[in-house]
Amino acid sequence: MHRFYSLNMSPFITGVFLWCYRRGGGGCYNILCWFWQFVPLFFRKRLEIGVRSLLWWRNGGRAADPGERDVETSETLVDPTDEFYCSYDSTWEDEPSQNRSIEMSSLPRSNRYKFRRFQNAAKDMQTYRHDYPNQPRNQHLSKPEARPNLMFYLGQHPCLPDGLHISDIHKEWHGDYNKLEYVHTYIQWLFPLQEPGVNSEASILTKQEITDFLNNSFAKKNLLKSYKLMLDFYGIELINEITGDVRKTENWMERFDNFNRHTHNSLRITRILKCLGTLGYRDYQAPLVKFFLVETLVNGQLPNIKESVLNYFVFAVLDKKKRRNLLKFAYENYEPKEEFVWCPKKIQMFWLQQMKIQNGREKSP
């Protein structure tokens, strides 16, 4: 692949070659490289225009660059025999996959352990992303008065067993880090899900409640306040309510230290991400996950939650394209790369080739 930049290729033609390499393998790539070195310079531009025109026609009049959708189209690389293929993860497929048993005896011991943990997490996250398909459909018929989660968010019902209303928590608990850390019964009320938690007095979110919640602006505003409350607890602040972008607060070192020592907060973050996706703040998921990827993989913070970020946080993101891009970012910043188990090996090899090409481009004069 080092030949790309010794052959005077434009980024577009590089994308064409990369596309051919992905589909035709090394033999196809070598033939193209051999052919390209004999193409006169004045003809290369005309050839590029011709290829662009062909792609324009093929895409129904929409301009296309074969390199611009690398992450989106790489599902073609999925192979059930891949050593890191996970039957519970549909990130790289257009349709949910059938469960398959994967032979892991050839993997190094550390990778086998990581991959098993990922598989266990993936099953849970797939259930969430598929909107709990085994949830009883008669929940749609719940009586209006049987909506404790919505009533709590409308200020008409206290959380149990604490007996606090939503406004009490927002006003009195903001910045009270001891309460937020050591009380474990409020989180199921602040971020309800269609699955049970450790608080037996909290209610599972019903399908009807979700519909009613999404149509109630007051409830959604209160959920946003709850999100900001918990972000502050973790040393994070929301800086854009439209995009969901976040950043560290001034006291982030203290809060990160607490997070790193009390890793049960990873379960809370997973719950928060799931709730955001269910109750109208889907666009907030990816920015928060990207924040944790940067802090764990790039900045070296929060080492004790790194695998939770990769096993759970990333796979809580409902938008498949964003989830793929997050995984690509994770792979690019993960070391050692041979221990990365969160996507099929063939896709990893494709990304590695992309990285080599990019490095060659940056080093070229």
From TrEMBL:
InterPro entries assigned: OGF_rcpt (IPR006757), OGFr (IPR039574)
Gene Ontology cellular component annotations, sorted alphabetically: membrane
UniProt domain Opioid growth factor receptor (OGFr) conserved: residue ranges: 144-346
Alphabetized UniProt keyword annotations: Receptor
Domain of life according to the entry: Eukaryota
Family: Belongs to the opioid growth factor receptor family.
Keyword Nuclease recorded: no
Protein name stated in the entry: Opioid growth factor receptor
Keyword hit for Iron: no
An annotated Gene Ontology molecular function: opioid growth factor receptor activity
